[in-house]
Structures are given as structure tokens and as C-alpha cells.
């Protein structure tokens, strides 16, 4: 099994890269999807979040009220740290189970872990390659406003809350520049796949 970490800042094109790698046959393990799963109603993680941040972070149907939780922790380093201490260990266990399942199904699988918070949570893991999706901050801001409907202030806040590009690029084995056309991005992904498959 080849285990690759795919990371990048918000609106950097990670999803596009992951989709293309999946088309080539990679097994994609999506950290954000795992986060949502471990926070399902009735889960120990959700109970811990409610205990730490108040029962009002749950909806009437017992689901996590993500906007309310976000407003409670956003910009508060201590609160983010407490939340991460609850969520990250559960995500680590579940992602490890998925890596093992992919390897059991196909010992030569290429497994791509799509993980926005690589530097914050998983930088020391034994990745064979760290792939960073990269586009300049101004372009990512523009994508957040035009494609995701964020206000410029919200876009700036989201970008500012993440690790800066220099730190992310410093751990990259491969950088995929997503600032050009879709065809240019995909050709870089195809070249990466040829390297992996070869």
C-alpha cells in the first residue's frame, strides 16, 4: 500500500485533485467525512462535545449544530484545542481502520488521505508522499466569495484561521498548482499518478 496525504488551504482545489486520483483508481479517505461520521447523534464524540461546549450545540433532533459550535470556538485558540482533543483521536482511529481495510482489499492500493488539517493533526504520520494543493491566497479568497457565497470578511477569517501557505509548502513532497486552468491542474495530477503507478 502507498499512503499519501493530500492537503491544502480552504478553496485550494483539494477536492478536484482527490476526484481525479479516484478516477485513476486511488482509494480516497476523506478526513472531513470521517469527522462528520464520528459526530453522528448518539456517538461518544458528540456527547463529549456537548459536555464541553453546552447542550445547545445540539439541535432539537440531537444532531451537531455546526454553525453554533463554529461560532463558539472560532477565533478562540483554547476552545479549538479542546474541540480538537475530542475529535482528532476518534478521526485517527477511524482513518487507520480505513487504511487497513484498503490494504486488506488490495495490498498494492494507493490510498490518499484528504486531510485539511495535516499540519495541525497528522504531520508526523509516516506518509510516503505529502501532496499540497496550492493557489495564492487572493485566488482562494475569490473562490470562497464567488463559488461558495461567503462574504469577503468571512473568507478572510477562514483563511486566517488556517496554517499559512509557507508552513504547508515546507512539508510538501509534491505541490500541485491549482491557480491555472482545470486542464493544467488535472495534467499535474495525471503526472503524479504516473509517478505513483510506475
From TrEMBL:
Keywords: ATP-binding, Coenzyme A biosynthesis, Cytoplasm, Kinase, Nucleotide-binding, Transferase. Pfam families: CoaE (PF01121). The keyword Zinc does not apply. InterPro entries: Depp_CoAkinase (IPR001977), P-loop_NTPase (IPR027417). ATP binds at residues 11-16. Pathway: Cofactor biosynthesis; coenzyme A biosynthesis; CoA from (R)-pantothenate: step 5/5. It catalyses: 3'-dephospho-CoA + ATP = ADP + CoA + H(+). It is found in: Cytoplasm. Its EC number is 2.7.1.24. One of its GO terms (molecular function) is dephospho-CoA kinase activity. Belongs to the CoaE family. NCBIfam families: dephospho-CoA kinase, PRK03333.1. Catalyzes the phosphorylation of the 3'-hydroxyl group of dephosphocoenzyme A to form coenzyme A. This is Dephospho-CoA kinase. It comes from Microbacterium gawkjiense. The gene is coaE.
Amino acid at each position: 500500500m502507498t499512503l499519501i496525504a493530500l492537503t491544502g488551504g480552504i478553496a485550494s482545489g483539494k477536492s478536484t485533485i482527490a476526484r481525479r486520483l479516484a478516477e485513476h483508481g486511488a482509494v480516497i479517505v476523506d478526513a472531513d467525512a470521517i469527522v462528520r461520521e464520528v459526530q453522528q447523534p448518539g456517538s461518544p464524540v458528540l456527547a463529549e462535545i456537548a459536555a464541553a461546549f453546552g447542550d445547545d450545540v445540539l439541535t432539537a433532533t440531537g444532531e451537531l449544530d455546526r454553525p453554533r459550535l463554529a461560532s463558539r470556538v472560532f477565533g478562540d485558540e483554547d476552545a479549538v484545542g479542546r474541540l480538537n482533543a475530542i475529535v482528532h483521536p476518534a478521526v485517527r482511529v477511524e482513518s487507520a481502520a480505513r487504511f487497513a481495510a484498503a490494504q486488506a482489499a488490495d495490498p498494492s492500493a494507493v490510498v490518499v488521505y484528504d486531510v485539511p488539517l495535516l499540519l495541525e493533526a497528522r504531520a508526523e504520520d509516516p506518509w510516503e508522499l505529502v501532496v499540497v494543493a496550492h493557489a495564492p491566497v487572493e485566488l482562494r479568497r475569490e473562490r470562497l466569495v464567488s463559488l461558495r457565497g461567503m462574504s469577503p470578511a468571512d473568507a478572510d477569517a477562514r483563511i486566517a484561521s488556517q496554517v499559512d501557505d509557507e508552513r504547508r509548502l515546507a512539508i510538501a513532497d509534491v505541490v500541485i498548482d491549482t491557480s491555472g486552468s482545470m486542464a493544467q491542474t488535472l495534467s499535474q495530477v495525471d503526472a503524479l499518478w504516473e509517478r505513483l503507478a510506475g
